[in-house]
Amino acid sequence: MTAIARCAPPLSGSAHRIRPFLASDVPAYAALIAGLSPADRRLRFHSAAAPSAPEQLRAMTLGPHAAAAVLVEADGGEVRGVAHAAFGDPPSCAEFGVVVGAPFRRRGFGGAMTDALLRILAVRGVSRVEAYTLWENAAAAALLRSRGFSGGHQGGGTVRWVLALQAASVITVPPPAVRCVRA
Predict the structure, then answer these.
(1) Residue 111 falls within a domain, yes or no?
(2) Domain encompassing residue 122
(3) β-strand partners of 49
(4) Mean pLDDT in residue range 136-143
(5) What is the separation, in whole angstroms, between the first and last Cα of the chain?
(6) Distance from C-alpha of 7 to C-alpha of 167, rounded to nearest angstrom
(7) Which of 21, 38, 112, 183 could hold 6 in an S-S bridge, CB 3.0 to 4.6 Å?
(8) What average pLDDT score do residues 124-143 get?
């Protein structure tokens, strides 16, 4: 895994940070999803429809099955992306997803959020993480491969990605809000 502090260079002179997702972030997450194109919604949620109701977003990120959630924000508080995971069955497994707003992609935010989320999941006892992508989602495939995930076709155009996490004892957990610095 890469270090959480190795994030994208600042956008237009503005610093960004990764931090835990809070209940007060639900409206910003809803706005981020609403700003996605239909094609982007399909790639991320495997459907043209995407979760949008505050109750649904709150349950996904903070509900009883939520394993962890983080976001990347600019200094002014604008949310650029969100990553979250849900416990599986058994709870030592989790499924996760990442979304970054179109204007902010290819800047390292998805990778930085993934790294932070994987660290949190390991500390919470998760030893296996899964992600599902559509086969044509080359950006997600590249991100997952770069973090050590192995993928296999599941049928119907879906790829299942799996990663065995390191023991939590060997992972250094960063403080809740870490400034992204230019590597």
Answers:
(1) yes
(2) 6-127
(3) none
(4) 90
(5) 15
(6) 24
(7) 183
(8) 91
